[in-house]
């Protein structure tokens, strides 16, 4: 089953699913031919199953929480400016432009993310572009999904 985005409320549901760390759940928002591009670390993954594999491997060592600060939705897609927390499940060495981080800390980074819809309003392509240097912070006591206002 593929879910669709017709409103900011739908996008809030996607974010709630994404922040749950449940890869099969949030991958339901992506089309079968989805493509993800993260140019700052030279990552490009195409296809829902390969994307599930990518996120599944990543979630073994690090959780990711997406907090949008600004959202623009139109008929073709969504653009967001967001703070993302990368929370390791163990001490992590410096890699891919991210600093070393200890368990109990997080990497806070700001991103601009563009989501493009297909004709069914499924997420077909998305880019995540860092918009600042990542910073190591103590894990916020209560990382949870905040609603978009």
Report on the architecture of this protein.
β3 and β4 form a beta hairpin. The chain has a single domain (8-138), classed as Nuclear Transport Factor 2, Chain: A. The longest helix is centred in the middle third of the chain and has 14 residues, at 48-61. The protein is 20% helix and 42% strand. It has helices spanning 8-19, 23-26, 48-61; strands at residues 30-38, 43-46, 62-73, 77-88, 105-117, 123-130, 135-138. Strands 1, 2, 3, 4, 5, 6 and 7 form a seven-stranded mixed β-sheet that branches. The chain is α+β, with helices and mostly antiparallel strands. This is SnoaL-like domain-containing protein. InterPro entries: NTF2-like_dom_sf (IPR032710). It comes from Exophiala bonariae.
Low-confidence stretches: 145-149
The total count of strands amounts to: 7
Instruction: Tell me the count of domains.
Output: 1
Strand content: 35-45%
- The SSE string, one letter per element, is HHEEHEEEEE
Note the main sheet.
7 strands, mixed
Distance between the termini: 28 Å
> How many helix segments?
3
SS-derived structural category: alpha+beta
Task: Quote the CATH topology.
Answer: Nuclear Transport Factor 2, Chain: A
From the alpha-carbon coordinates, what is the Rg to the nearest angstrom? 15 Å
Mean pLDDT: 91
Known CATH architecture:
Roll
CATH class: Alpha Beta
> Given the C-alpha coordinates, what overall shape results?
globular
Helix content: 10-25%
